Automatic annotation (TrEMBL):
Binding positions (substrate): 276, 504
Lineage: Eukaryota, Metazoa, Chordata, Craniata, Vertebrata
Cellular compartment(s): Cytoplasm; Nucleus
Classification via PANTHER family: TYROSYL-DNA PHOSPHODIESTERASE 1
A Pfam family per the record: Tyr-DNA_phospho
Identification of the protein by name: Tyrosyl-DNA phosphodiesterase 1
Role, per record: DNA repair enzyme that can remove a variety of covalent adducts from DNA through hydrolysis of a 3'-phosphodiester bond, giving rise to DNA with a free 3' phosphate. Catalyzes the hydrolysis of dead-end complexes between DNA and the topoisomerase I active site tyrosine residue. Hydrolyzes 3'-phosphoglycolates on protruding 3' ends on DNA double-strand breaks due to DNA damage by radiation and free radicals. Acts on blunt-ended double-strand DNA breaks and on single-stranded DNA.
Species assigned in the record: Oreochromis aureus (Israeli tilapia)
Chief place where the protein resides: cytoplasm
GO BP terms: single strand break repair
Length: 616
């Protein structure tokens, strides 16, 4: 099947595969691993060369094979950055166009079945093919240095001198929800934000051991983020890689004997180990971080990411009872249950350590997903039914709640089915609209935030930011109905409009967007694989992936609702409203806006580095 749009022509498969994740099961590409495949390559072409400008040279980049990238989309972005293709004003790269019939969306579909390649990250044979070069067309010159960024010279600097904290920064201790620092922003927008080096620094504790749960890893880079005095302390890596990907991951760690591994069981097809969590054991106590960033450099500098950082949990007195140190939100019980779901001997000592600490100060609820098929009361342990149960038990109905919109914001999208009733506006919306024990099932507005092509094009990273937004054409063309829900990524209040989101958040807002009924930050994207889907006439819940997030409910903070902080930066230690990472109310797509789709070309206009995006 062929499609045509303002971005050129591409070819898609007519496969009826309806699996949820566009990402492959593997989560790494590692040092010494094979190069990303040609089918995942995105080239760059140049705008008219700009006059020489004085810019700080970029640090030397590693070869593509050492970049830790977890999907074809990330591989494409990696190659894109290493081998830029510059924008030209020459004829379209799309090649000869076929006559197609347009629909009202601005996309064009034909009845041709030219390709029937596999989808879901298994093969990219159905992606756009390379067009043979036109002998009359001058071969584009690939320059060694990128043109100046409209975002300023700071783009080229790894981080300014004062990027990392030398003393404990002012932090919002009420909610303990923090954004990651972003290079190239005004200093005030990083005040109260955290980098991985800040998290692991002695400012927060004297580290003895740690566990890193994640999806993508660059082991050498990760080790360097630990301060030198902690760099040889034992680290356990919890991952979902299998076979060759697992071997490459282990190979990465060969120079680091203090790094050990725990493989998460993934017994259901297309599931991933997507949870992102740190367990930090200190001489002074214990801490949990639940976050949205992979353990690769690209996730920590120019993307919008978020985290919940626990208080420092003190050790319980010896001979404490089994129920000691529990929080009003039962966080300790739920974290232990989540860790037990791995059925991994490597985690047993950590389960025991958590039991020995006092987690009673925790004010958030844990919302996790673990792979499996669940029946009976177990259906409410994981995924969106877990969220539904918490909203049912710990919130209250609100007058006029049918006018309180649901907001979902994410960086990847799975297959939702042929229409909204199949999952999104059915079981998932029922979860997101639950408020207390009301039998009312309102149908409030639903706003879904996902970056448009223009958002990505004008971002700090330019088109390569789209490598972390792996919405595929194979999925998108089956659910054009979904795009009417979409809203732009705009984050002026946090200074992050040009830092593309890898954070995932869900919330329920008042009609004037000044209050929140609840807020969730999580690793879970908009997919059935992440959130689970009901089966067998709603008597069974099937979850494919590991995910983890924390839910903020006003009742746990002695409030009826959370007020939204309209100016969350710079952060002060005094109490303020909830720091929503993007602007409210959300901005709807216009008829000209298209959702970012990673595996089609964008050659009509250059990005902020003068480049275009041409998957081949």
């Amino acid at each position: 099947m062929s499609q045509d749009s303002q971005h050129g022509k591409w070819t898609i498969s007519s496969s009826d595969d309806d699996n949820d994740e566009a990402l492959p099961p593997s989560g790494t590409a590692t040092s010494g691993s094979r190069q990303p495949t040609e089918s995942s390559h995105s080239s760059y072409r140049s705008a008219t060369p700009s006059p020489p400008v004085e810019v700080k040279p970029e640090p030397a980049k590693p070869p593509v094979s050492s970049l830790a990238v977890g999907s074809e989309a990330r591989q494409s972005a990696a190659k894109n950055q290493l081998n830029p293709v510059k924008y030209e004003t020459s004829p379209s790269l799309a090649g000869k166009r076929k006559k197609v019939a347009s629909d009202s969306t601005g996309w064009a579909l034909s009845d041709s079945d030219e390709d029937d390649g596999e989808v879901k990250g298994k093969s990219l044979s159905d992606l756009p093919k390379k067009v043979p070069p036109n002998p009359k067309t001058k071969k584009p010159k690939v320059e060694s240095e990128r043109p100046p960024s409209p975002h300023g010279r700071l783009y080229y600097i790894d981080e300014p001198d004062d990027f990392f904290e030398s003393c404990l920064p002012p932090l919002n201790d009420t909610y303990r929800f923090y954004l990651n620092k972003v290079t190239g922003l005004e200093k005030k927008y990083n005040s109260g934000a955290l980098h991985i080096r800040d998290i692991l620094s002695p400012l927060f504790g004297t580290l003895k051991e740690s566990v890193q749960f994640n999806y993508c890893f660059d082991i050498a880079w990760m080790v360097k983020q630990y301060p030198s005095e902690f760099r040889d302390r034992p680290v356990l890596i919890v991952h979902g890689d299998k076979r060759e990907a697992k071997a490459r991951l282990i190979q990465q760690a060969q120079p680091f004997p203090h790094v050990r591994f725990c493989q998460a069981k993934l017994d259901i097809a297309f599931g991933t180990h997507h949870t992102k969590m740190m367990l930090l054991w200190y001489e002074e106590g214990f801490r949990v971080i639940i976050l949205t960033s992979n353990l690769i450099r690209a996730d920590w500098y120019q993307k919008t990411q978020g985290m919940w950082m626990s208080p420092l949990y003190p050790r319980l007195p010896k001979e404490s009872s089994a129920s000691a140190g529990e929080s009003p939100t039962f966080f300790k019980r739920d974290l232990l249950e989540y860790l037990a779901s791995y059925r991994a001997p490597e985690l047993e000592e950590w389960i025991q350590r958590i039991k020995e600490h006092d987690l009673s100060e925790t004010r958030v609820y844990l919302v996790g997903s673990t792979p499996g098929r669940y029946v009976g009361s177990d259906m409410e342990r994981w995924g969106h039914l877990r969220l539904r149960k918490l909203l049912y038990e710990h919130t209250n109905p609100i007058p006029g709640e049918e006018r309180w919109p649901v907001i979902g914001q994410f960086s990847s999208i799975g297959s939702m089915g042929l229409d909204k009733s199949k999952w999104l506006a059915g079981e998932f919306q029922r979860t997101l609209t639950t408020l207390g024990k009301s039998s009312l099932r309102p149908d409030p507005p639903m706003h879904l935030l996902y970056p448009s092509v223009e958002d990505v094009r004008m971002s700090l990273e330019g088109y390569p930011a789209g490598g972390s937004l792996p919405y595929s054409i194979q999925t998108a063309q089956k659910q054009l109905w979904l795009h009417s829900y979409f809203h732009r990524w705009k984050a002026e209040a946090t200074g992050r409009s040009h830092a593309m989101p890898h954070i995932k958040t869900y919330m329920r807002a008042s009609p004037d967007f000044s209050q929140l009924a609840w807020f969730l930050v999580t690793s879970a994207n908009l997919s059935k694989a992440a959130w689970g889907a009901l089966e067998k006439n709603n008597t069974q819940m099937m979850v494919r992936s590991y995910e983890l997030g924390v839910l903020y409910l006003p009742s746990a903070f002695g409030m009826k609702t959370f007020s939204v902080d309209k100016n969350p930066f710079p952060v002060s230690a005094s109490f303020s409203g909830f720091p929503v990472p993007f602007d409210l109310p959300p901005t709807s797509y216009t008829t000209k806006d298209q959702p970012w789709i990673w595996n089609i070309p964008y050659s009509q206009a250059p990005d902020t580095h003068g480049n275009i995006w041409v998957p081949s």
